[in-house]
Design a protein that fits this description.
It is a single chain. The protein has a two-stranded parallel ribbon with strand order 1-2. 53% of the residues lie in helices and 6% in strands. By secondary structure, it is mainly alpha-helical. The radius of gyration is 11 Å and the shape is globular. Helix 2 packs across helix 3. It contains 4 helices and 2 strands. It has helices spanning 9-15, 20-27, 31-39, 46-56, and strands at 7-8, 63-64.
């Protein structure tokens, strides 16, 4: 049976060994934007979610958005 647990966006970033600053640079967004996504204040576009899937090496289905 496949494991389908979800993790937070910030946990996905940490598991991929990126600081908020570095991940923001690689995603071409301001660190405050990434911080707001991780806190559930705002939400990324579909394109940015796809970029995070590649960067963090995790399916968007596993990421829990607040």
């Amino acid at each position: 049976m496949e494991d389908k647990f979800q993790i937070t966006l910030s946990a996905a970033r940490v598991n991929a060994n990126y600081s908020q600053k570095k991940a923001a640079q690689l995603l071409h967004v301001d660190p405050m934007t990434l911080r707001n996504w991780e806190k559930g204040i705002t939400y990324p576009t579909s394109k940015k979610i796809e970029e995070m899937e590649i960067l963090y090496k995790i399916s968007k289905d596993r990421i829990k958005f607040a």
